[in-house]
């Protein structure tokens, strides 16, 4: 079979642990036999990030800006345990957070659905896409552990000489403080990305904060979204789409009662939590797509889940694992399809579509990894290990491309 030719490289970001193992299996079995793959490769595994003082993460983000499309494997964000385990020089920040900040992007996460796995919320009929603001809030916060009584203040000294301060709390004893921020620029980029993605995917857009309580911080999100919406209002009306704002608690109630089929835009922390809730309610975090979109149209595709540490230790001990590679495969298909769209390569677009179809066909035939077997209804599934699952996908992919 003649391999599909590429003209522009993808930015390829390798990762950690079990997902790194799956990454190579996916490339070897599902990508390289069919595509003359061109990538600019960056190893974002924790040892390499530590060796380069995390410069490699920043380089990968800059390469994404240059080439426009990236695909990323899951990576470790180290805690104290990982510091010791990997003998790190410091507790490096989340690579995803670094990349999001450099690209000024918004994360869109949507579940991969199949007929045999019913959502836990019985009235959900269509996927719900979570749009997560990818900057600021608690992820860029600073914190103080207060050990004694005293006064905590929020202070701002402007370049003009303007001075503002407000008392946060008169502490009578020990406690904790947290300061967080956002910028109008980042919020505005978030809004543009959300409205553009809604138009591209022809879905309604919901947005929620708690501006009744946070009368300046959250209220600024609401105001900027309303302002930016005016630029897209005519297109929304032409496509019959709705932009809807409500409070976060009301949004949660509406989401649970809804049939799905829309984008739910959330602030950074809300989006982090709600994407896990939505993916689990639809079946599995391993069945969740994730794409980072910058306001100027750069795309970085990844799996929404972590590095599957428990399975990795089993793998190192020579034990068989049944790890679900679906989200990682869909990161590759999304990136390859977008590269094809940008470069006008229909074969690449078709390949992405056919590989996704082969994945879904495999699951619909009842061949599944351990995490999905107990969720399936109406069929008698066959549990396979990771290699067996990927082999079954390849068999169906070859038939589709023949």
Molecular structure report:
This protein has 402 residues and is α/β, with parallel strands linked by helices. The protein contains 14 helices and 18 strands. It has helices at 17-31, 46-51, 55-67, 80-85, 95-103, 184-201, 217-239, 248-257, 268-282, 309-316, 326-343, 346-364, 370-373, 386-401, and strands at 4-5, 10-14, 35-36, 39-43, 69-72, 106-111, 129-133, 142-146, 150-157, 163-171, 175-179, 204-209, 243-247, 262-266, 288-293, 299-303, 367-368, 382-383. The strands form five sheets. It has a ten-stranded mixed β-sheet, sandwiched between helices. It has a two-stranded parallel sheet with strand order 1-3. Helix 7 (217-239) links the parallel strand 12 (204-209) and strand 13. The longest helix is centred in the middle third of the chain and has 23 residues, at 217-239. The chain is globular, with a radius of gyration of 22 Å. The model has no long low-confidence stretch (mean pLDDT 95).
The number of distinct helices, counting runs of at least 4 residues, comes to: 14
Strand content: 15-25%
Order of strands across the biggest sheet?
4-2-5-16-15-6-7-14-12-13
Mean pLDDT: 95
Q: Helical residue percent?
A: 40-55%
Radius of gyration: 22 Å
Query: How far apart, in Å, are the first and last alpha carbons?
Result: 8 Å
The 3D shape can be described as: globular
Question: Largest sheet, if any?
Answer: 10 strands, mixed
- How many runs of DSSP E, i.e. beta strands? 18
- Helix-and-strand structural type: alpha/beta
